[in-house]
Amino acid sequence: MSNSSEFTALNLKKVGKVILLSVLIWSFFLGTSYGAGQLSLSTPYPGISAQPGSSVTFPLTVSGTGFVDLEVTATPSGWTAGIFGDGMKIHRVYVPTNDSAEAELRVQIPSEAKSGDYSLSVEASRSGRAKLLLNIRIDADASGSDKIEVQYPSLSGPDTATFSFRGTLYNNSGRARFYSLGANAPEGWQISFKPAYQNNQITSLSLEPGKSQDLDITVQPPKGVKAGKNTITTAAVHGSEVAKADLEVVISGTYRLELSTPTGRLNADLTAGRKGSLTLELENKGSADLQTINLSASAPPGWAVTFEPEKIERIKSGEKKQITAFITPDGKAIAGDYVLSINASASETSENADIRVTVHTSTRWGLVGAFIIVGVISWVAWTFKKYGRR
Fold it and tell me: Which fold has domain 27-138?
């Protein structure tokens, strides 16, 4: 009798183990969602492949009734994870009776993560607990994060050009998403977004899961921007997740030289036969530096024009330089207005400025003339006085 009881107890233990094992296996094949009573936590994608440095989103469905707390209970070392709802970080959801609530688990994978399988877990709790086991497989060739792809990410042209890029925004998550569009660009640059083949500028858009949207991205550099490479980072932001694309604009050299005076007035008053001076101002309004700028003048016959300095070795983009022009009109020049043409030239460009010069006769000759006139009057008066009485 004793042996029979021991045999029966042994069989019951074996049956219990078989039942327990069956329950565990059945729970596993039901999809890594473990419920406690009516409370359950599930996801349609419990295993996702991703690249190192990317972010992964698991859509979560919470079933039950009332307020349910959510918590990330396990993550790999160095990884960050949070639960979000409508773009906000959350720790609790409300589930209406006989309904469900939606949330997202967002996981940021470190860039140094090595290939392999990594486990995470999320728990929902009310009166009981429901646990969800998740798996991320690190694969350098994996895809799936939201992204912006640009067909030709590098364009070149002068600073007066408008650069147009064609990009595509992909929603690779399991939920519809609302994206805010923006860009990080150097100061003065203007960036705008339009749906492809449309004229309306947009700052945001919504995309259904698995869908994409072609975008026309327009980049307008400020006038006079220096030649060289410029990087503009465009972004589509959903909550804490950001899809980015770097655009490169290479500004080719433009050459524009302006010749004027510091006051902007192109005139001078000079005296015939005397050296005078006029301050000139050269400004490089192009996007590239100018080398070896020579100065010359076209003046009326008998005039002398020199410059100090005679040439400028270099003017950087946006820089100004002052030059003094020494002008000596012909000593026999008649009083009046004359035109003096001044030229500044580099190998890439040149600029002319016409200066109106008002010439006055020398006061010395005026005094001589006055003395002559006084002498003539005096002689006439003396002659009249001497011979007029006869």
Answer: Immunoglobulin-like (2.60.40)
CA 258 – CA 352 distance, rounded (Å):
8
Domains of the chain, by residue range, sit at 27-138, 147-251, 257-364
State pLDDT tens for residues 208-228: 887 899 999 999 998 778 888
Distant-in-sequence, close-in-space partners of 96: CB < 8 Å, separation ≥ 6: 65
Q: What is the mean pLDDT of the chain?
A: 85
Q: Which residue matches tokens 């002559």?
A: 372
In terms of Cα–Cα distance, which of 164, 147, 53, 37 is closest to 95? 37
Q: Residue ranges of the alpha helices (H) in 328-390?
A: 363-387
Chain centroid, CA 176 distance in Å? 28
Homologous superfamily assigned to 147-251? Immunoglobulins (2.60.40.10)
Average pLDDT on 99-119 reads 92
| Span 334-350, pLDDT tens digits | 999 999 999 999 988 89
CB 46 within 8 A of CB 132: yes
Taking the C-alpha atoms of residue 340 and residue 120, their distance in angstroms, rounded to an integer, is 83
Beta bridge partners of 22: none
The domain defined by 257-364 folds into Immunoglobulin-like (2.60.40)
